[in-house]
Amino acid sequence: xxxxxxxxGARDPLLELSGTALRAYMLxxxxxxxxxxxxxxxxxxxxxxxxxxxxxxxxxxxxxxxxVEGGYVAEPPKTGLLRAYIIVRGRLVPRSLAxxxxxxxxxxxxxxxxxxxxxxVAVLSVAAALSLLDAYTAYRAAETLRIDSAQQxxx
Length: 155
Hints:
InterPro entries: ArsR-like_HTH, LexA_DNA-bd_dom, WH-like_DNA-bd_sf, WH_DNA-bd_sf. Pfam families: LexA_DNA_bind. The protein has a two-stranded antiparallel ribbon with strand order 1-2. The protein has helices at residues 19-30, 37-44, 49-61, 96-112, 118-151, and strands spanning 65-68, 71-74, 85-88, 91-94. The protein contains 5 helices and 4 strands; from the N terminus they run αααββββαα. α1 (19-30) packs across α3, α2 (37-44) packs across α3 and α4 (96-112) packs antiparallel against α5. The model is unreliable at 1-8 (pLDDT under 50). By secondary structure, it is mainly alpha-helical.
């Protein structure tokens, strides 16, 4: 089935989503508890519960959500674009943020050591800056996805 993985030409499940289904997924990702059909219908401004159920079942079919007691919960993606993120308190946080923080801390620690080589500090500073830029870019991409999905009109 398309969207289950990236091997064999299958597409990223996130690329299978647009409009209301994407908004539903982002809402489930931010939710810290199961969400029922009626709650999703209300929060997305949908006209009928059957429309909400359709989008939730589409997410289940793509492996992006699962049914639990009390409704549906988002499944962290196992492949594709969103693998570059972890979900912290309902927010997408770039995995590269940990690398950037470590690189920055190591650079600062080395820079304050007596007798540290200024050339090495400069190289480490560039590496730290690039790591931070990568993490920031990934964060902005996630925010754009969140904002874009929030601005879609209900169907």
